[in-house]
Amino acid sequence: MTFVKHFTSFAVVAFVLSAGAYAKDTHSGNFTLADTVQVGSTQLAPGNYKAEWDGPANNVKINIVRHGKTIVTTGGKIRNLQQPAPYDSVALKTLGNNTKAIDEIEFDNRDEALVLAGE
Asked: Per-domain residue ranges for the chain?
C-alpha cells in the first residue's frame, strides 16, 4: 500500500511539473526585423527577436529579447485587433532624424497587437 501511495504522489508531481513546460506563454511573441530600427535610444540590428510584456493592457512593460538576453525595455499598450493577425509583422515609423522605429508588432494568429510607446 505504501508503494502505491508513493507512486501516486510521484505521478501527480511529475504531471504538474510537465504541464508547465507545455503551457503557452501568452505574454510574449517572436518577430523578425529586416532593417536596423530604434527602440528608445537602442538600435536593434536585423534578425530574430522576442517581445515579452507584463502589466495592464493600457500600460505594459515590454522587454525586447535576443538570444535569451534583454536588449531593451520600453513601455507600451495592447491594441485589440478585429481578427487574428495572419502572420507576424512589425509596423515601423520614421522619426525626425530619418531613423526607423518600431511602432507596432502583430503576432501570428493572435488578436492583439503590441504598440510601443512613442519616444
From this structure: 26-116
